[in-house]
Amino acid sequence: DVSMCNVLLQELEKAGLLNKTKIAEGGRKLRKNWSPSWVVLVGNSLVFFKDPKSQTPSRNSRPESSMDLRGAQLQWANDLSSKKNVFKLRTVTGNEFLLQSETDSLINEWFNTIQNVIERLDRE
Ligand code: I3S
Q1: What are the pLDDT digits (tens) for 45-74?
Q2: pLDDT tens sequence across 78-100
Q3: ipTM score for this prediction
Q4: Is 60 exceeded by the pLDDT of residue 116?
Q5: Are the CB atoms for 105 and 57 separated by under 8 Å?
Q6: Is any ligand 1 atom within 6 A of the Cβ of residue 79?
Q7: Alpha carbon distance, N-terminus to C-terminus of the chain
Q8: Any ligand 1 atom below 6 A from CB of 32
Q9: CA nearest 113: which of 15, 30, 47?
Q10: Phi and psi (nearest 5°) for 104?
Q11: Angle subtended at Cα 78 by Cα 49 and Cα 106, rounded to the nearest 5 degrees
Q12: Please, is 104 exposed, middle or buried when counting C-beta atoms within 10 Å of its C-beta (0-12, 13-18, 19+)?
């Protein structure tokens, strides 16, 4: 529907492919499982989709998961992985994700954009 599309277009801040692994759920540590994820920053949330390349073409494009950025903590976390360019996001509910890209400029853009959203939400 057109109005929903307009809302999404207005609030869509960024989208792209990053490597992702969840490392904690509600404060409980999880085993790493890196995989490419299509990451969309819309409104106050990061929404994760399966890598479109690893999927059979389908009109069903429900997100795999999402996280609310309100109150979230963002920090570089190169100590948590042998990969380069890794940052960690922690939600208020204790879910933790690592996001990574081989491309320095790309990961820096994501870090700065997410940080701006978190700071904006902190001021509200
Ligand atoms: O922090 P870890 O345990 O060294 O993370 C590595 C493991 O998750 C590994 O899988 P196994 O649990 O099957 O060994 C992954 O393949 C690696 O990618 C993880 O380390 P990096 O350094 O890539 O985040």
Answers
A1: 999 998 877 766 655 567 888 899 999 999
A2: 999 999 999 999 999 999 999 99
A3: 0.88
A4: yes
A5: no
A6: no
A7: 30
A8: yes
A9: 15
A10: -55, -50
A11: 50
A12: exposed
Alpha carbon of 50 to ligand 1 centroid (Å)? 20
Q: Which residue has the tokens 């380069």?
A: 84
Residue 83's identity, in one-letter code, is K
**pTM score, whole prediction:** 0.88
Amino acid identity of 108?
N
Give the pLDDT score at 89: 98
DSSP 93: T
- Please name the residue that has the structure tokens 């990574």: 100
- Indicate the top mutation candidate among 23, 32, 81 to test ligand 1's pocket, ranked by most ligand atoms within 8 A of CB: 32
- Measured in whole angstroms, how far is the alpha carbon of residue 43 from the centre of its chain? 12
3-state class of 123 per DSSP? helix
Report pLDDT for 53: 73
Please give the structure tokens belonging to residue 92: 């208020």
